């Protein structure tokens, strides 16, 4: 085919992509019009993990399984900063000039991963960006691919997902594979068999099961010259790291900043007065404003406000938890759309459908499955009707409007059952095989209703639900105690498991249970977790419930100024704080301790530079109750930081102890990244009040 012919083929393909991706249907209601994606899309915050952090994550989560060639943890310490990155920069060259071939984008449910891929497709087809980098972009949605059972080639699989024929795709992959980008959405739906049993395909024309083809693409065995962007839920990231031969760029979508929330409101509300009133009502509820950093929750809040702002304002001000937002959204839809069934009957039917699909690990279901539960497929709220091409035929299929609604309705179904059946179902959510005393979330491909269960057992939320459906709730208290006991028993001291348990406890909004969960904890370690604003709000609620926690480890948590402001009341509770805060946030971080009457404080830092030295000096000067400040530095005590301390702490009112590595060279001293050089020696430096020095003499 001539170059002109190929150009015509690609132009037609781009036109089909625009038709497919131009609009986003936000709700399955006759009264809701389709919205243009370009007019509604708001850029979320995306964090690009630094090279050192990516290598560290890869070694800890993947290479540790092989126990060969891995470096000691101490050799992985770095002050290499994570940074924010835009959607059009995902494949930009790194600081060394290398262009990444594989990009992993992880994020929690509802954070906007799928919508971002739709935006990339639309912008490429519209020549907004990426059109110069890539001749063709394909999008494969793993939840859809999982529905395919017939054997096919990679060319046929890509053709199944788009308007190009398999012959056209075959020619493209032969001519310019290096100008092809494949977007793979929702890799958590792909199972990961052991490497020795994995079918390895090398030819795009080889036929196999679609999931085997996907694994070969992910491994780089198929299309090794092409580029790839993979999205995954946060809980499935470890499994993906094992599947890939080695990530080139590791990113995480964090949701909206406060400015992003405001921008989304501006795009949602066309009326200026309604916009102002809506945003002001949300701003008065800090927890709700923080929840709006999750794009899905932000849309739900805006939807409810738009439906009935005048009588809804006071209700929105009282919403605190994710579950309470879902409950309010669900009943807003039910109240504004006449249904032949009662609310209780419909909710039970939706719950039964959700629970059955959870057990079968199915996202899509047919009309018969919907009708079996007593729902009317033609008018049922909360379900989207679409179609899937199966064996060259478009088949009608249904799915929940978002996977999180499947989790929500499953949880609600359990709560609506009688006590014995309810607990039997809930008990089955906790894994029978446990590692240590950890609570592991269910398989990433499975929905996880545990946080919603906790939220539905919140006294205010449960009473609101049962009042609206006109039904008593006799077993809520017993069910709540049993569920919380299971969560508490398996909570750990650190990491994602602890954060997950704290989110569950936050949904409950019962301080008694939080105290019980944390009573054995002396420290909280959340190292290497990119904390979202919602995570910080959970910590703000949970940690003050138990005053014995004195050690907070927040290394490499991507704490922005917004997040630090949320955490400030919690930080001042600590006597031991480990942080890798950015230089521009040091003063904000340390200002948390200025007026809390602390006598001792132990800081753990990555390096002592001028910013940290300035923050330490300010803390010593302002916090007059402080008797001893100990600073442990993993990396280097830089000359700039030490000189500033020596100049300013000639007669501090308290003892300041600085411990770390110092370069012994008289000139050309080592920089932050050179901390492991042999010229760096461990030192311990004391700055003492002159009165104390005289007494010691």
Automatic annotation (TrEMBL):
Coiled-coil parts of chain: none
SUPFAM superfamilies: P-loop containing nucleoside triphosphate hydrolases, RNI-like
Annotated localization: Inflammasome
InterPro entries to which the protein is assigned, alphabetical: LRR_dom_sf (IPR032675), NACHT_NTPase (IPR007111), NLRP_HD2 (IPR041267), NLRP_innate_immun_reg (IPR050637), P-loop_NTPase (IPR027417)
A GO term from the CC aspect: cytosol
Pfam families registered for this protein in UniProt: NACHT, NLRC4_HD2
Residues annotated as transmembrane: none
GO molecular function: ATP binding
Domain of life from the UniProt record: Eukaryota
Cross-referenced Gene3D superfamilies: P-loop containing nucleotide triphosphate hydrolases, Ribonuclease Inhibitor
Keyword line: ATP-binding, Cytoplasm, Inflammasome, Inflammatory response, Nucleotide-binding, Repeat, Ubl conjugation
Segments forming domain NACHT: 101-234
This protein's record includes keyword Thylakoid: no
PANTHER family: NACHT, LRR AND PYD DOMAINS-CONTAINING PROTEIN 12, NACHT, LRR AND PYD DOMAINS-CONTAINING PROTEIN 3
Name by which UniProt lists this protein: LRR and PYD domains-containing 3-like protein
High-level lineage: Eukaryota, Metazoa, Chordata, Craniata, Vertebrata
């Amino acid at each position: 085919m001539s170059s002109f012919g190929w150009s015509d083929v690609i132009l037609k393909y781009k036109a089909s992509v625009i038709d497919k991706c131009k609009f986003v249907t936000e709700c399955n209601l006759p009264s809701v019009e389709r919205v243009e994606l370009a007019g509604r899309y708001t850029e979320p915050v995306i964090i690009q993990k630094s090279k050192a952090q990516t290598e560290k994550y890869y070694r800890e989560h993947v290479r540790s399984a092989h126990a060969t060639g891995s470096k000691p943890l101490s050799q992985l310490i770095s002050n290499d900063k994570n940074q924010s990155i835009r959607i059009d920069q995902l494949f930009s060259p790194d600081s060394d000039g290398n262009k990444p071939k594989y990009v992993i984008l992880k994020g929690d449910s509802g954070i906007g991963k799928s919508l971002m891929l739709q935006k990339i497709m639309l912008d490429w087809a519209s020549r907004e960006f990426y059109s110069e980098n890539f001749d063709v972009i394909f999008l494969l949605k793993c939840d859809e691919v999982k529905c395919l059972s017939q054997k096919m080639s990679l060319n046929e699989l890509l053709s199944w997902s788009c308007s190009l024929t398999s012959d056209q795709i075959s020619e493209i992959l032969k001519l310019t594979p290096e100008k092809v980008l494949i977007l793979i959405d929702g890799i958590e739906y792909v199972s990961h068999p052991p490497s020795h049993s994995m079918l390895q395909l090398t030819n795009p024309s080889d036929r196999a099961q679609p999931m085997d083809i996907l694994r070969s693409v992910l491994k780089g065995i198929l299309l090794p010259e092409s580029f790839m962007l993979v999205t995954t839920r946060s809980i499935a990231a470890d499994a993906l790291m094992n599947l890939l031969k080695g990530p080139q760029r590791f990113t995480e979508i964090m949701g909206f900043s406060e400015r992003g929330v405001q921008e989304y409101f501006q795009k949602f509300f066309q009326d200026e007065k309604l916009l102002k009133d809506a945003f002001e009502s949300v701003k008065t509820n800090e927890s709700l404003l923080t929840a709006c950093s999750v794009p899905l929750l932000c849309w739900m809040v805006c939807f409810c406000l738009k439906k009935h702002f005048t009588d809804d304002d006071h209700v929105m001000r009282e919403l605190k938890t994710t579950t309470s937002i879902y409950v309010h959204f669900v009943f807003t839809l039910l109240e504004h759309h006449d249904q032949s069934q009662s609310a209780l009957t419909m909710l039970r039917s939706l719950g039964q459908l959700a629970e059955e699909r959870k057990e079968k690990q199915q996202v899509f279901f047919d009309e018969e499955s919907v009708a079996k539960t007593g729902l009317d497929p033609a008018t049922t709220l909360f379900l989207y009707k679409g179609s899937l091409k199966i064996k060259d035929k478009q088949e009608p299929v249904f799915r929940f409007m978002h996977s999180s609604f499947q989790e929500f309705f499953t949880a609600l179904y359990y709560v609506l059952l009688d006590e014995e059946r309810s607990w039997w179902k809930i008990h089955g959510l906790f894994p029978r095989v446990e590692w240590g005393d950890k609570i592991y979330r269910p398989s990433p491909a499975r929905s996880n209703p545990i946080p919603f269960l906790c939220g539905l057992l919140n006294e205010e939320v449960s009473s609101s639900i049962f009042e609206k459906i006109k039904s008593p709730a006799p077993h809520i208290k017993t069910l709540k105690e049993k569920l919380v006991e299971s969560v508490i028993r398996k909570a750990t001291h650190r990491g994602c498991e602890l954060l997950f348990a704290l989110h569950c406890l936050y949904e409950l909004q019962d301080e008694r249970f939080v105290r019980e969960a944390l009573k054995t904890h002396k420290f909280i370690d959340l190292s290497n977790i990119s904390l979202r604003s919602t995570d910080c709000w959970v910590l703000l609620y949970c940690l003050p419930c138990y005053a014995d926690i004195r050690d907070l480890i927040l290394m490499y948590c991507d704490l922005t100024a917004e997040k630090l402001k949320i955490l400030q009341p919690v930080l001042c509770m600590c006597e031991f704080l480990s942080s890798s805060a950015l230089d521009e946030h040091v003063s904000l971080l340390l200002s948390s301790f200025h007026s809390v009457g602390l006598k001792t404080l132990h800081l753990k830092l990555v390096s002592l530079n001028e910013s940290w030295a300035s923050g330490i000096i300010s803390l010593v000067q302002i916090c007059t109750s402080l008797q001893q400040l100990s600073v442990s530095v993993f990396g280097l005590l830089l000359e700039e930081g030490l000189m500033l301390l020596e100049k300013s702490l000639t007669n501090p009112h308290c003892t300041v102890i600085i411990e770390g590595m110092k370069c012994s060279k008289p000139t050309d001293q080592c920089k932050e990244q050179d901390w492991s050089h042999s010229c760096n020696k461990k030192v311990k430096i004391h700055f003492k009040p002159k009165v104390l020095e005289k007494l010691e003499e």
